[in-house]
Design goal:
The chain has a single domain (about 1-210), classed as Jelly Rolls, CATH 2.60.120.560. Helix content is about 5%, strand content about 50%. It has one helix spanning about 1-10, and strands spanning about 30-35, 40, 50-55, 60-65, 70-80, 80-90, 100-105, 115-120, 125-130, 135-145, 155-165, 170-175, 175-185, 190-195, 200-210. The strands form 2 sheets. The protein has an 8-stranded mixed sheet, covered by helices on one side. It is globular and about 50 Å long.
Amino acid sequence: MRLIALALAAGLVCSAAPLHALQLAPPPGWKWVTDRPARMSTVPDRQGDTLFTFVRMPPGFHITMGPGGVLYEPRFIAEQRFTLESEIFHFPNSTNGEYGLFVGGTGLEGSSPRYVSFVLRGDGSVAAWERSAAGTRMLSEWRRADAVIPADGKEAQRNRLRLVVTRQEAVLKANGLDILILPLEGLSLDGNFGFRVGEGLNLHVTTLDVTQRLAPARGQ
């Protein structure tokens, strides 16, 4: 894992300039909703309770959060049967806040936003919840998942997430293994999707891929 983290760092910054000396741009078209008022900064790794950073840094995006929030491209919609995949590096100067994917986003910039999060924490645990105007409803309580690589406080740790959604259930995988299975009776995951990132986290996301299943799966 140390070699992976070093290779990532070398790919992110080809010059000798430190991250905080770079001036980068947010991804075109993307939007964000933070849990409390905050100001966007385009300087990577700039920390602060009222600051957050979300910038293009190929390969992928760099995200540093003061308050937590969701980040998404409004044109991107996933419905019915689909798969999301993302590779996320969790850096040691982070809190134990949650990070991962959200789906089913509706009204995100309005007075009644709603979305469902599938998230990890640095302690190696996993959970899912629905957030709406009524508050936060836990769909799967926090529990330890052996397939999740926890933070060690020394170097960046990589987790590869894959969320497979059918009409009946949502299955979250970490590093190729199932870590959470959520029945979808009475729960819709249709809508916007993107990243849910908690307070005080420093991440690099190398990929976000979506596959829409058109042919019926077995038993459908």
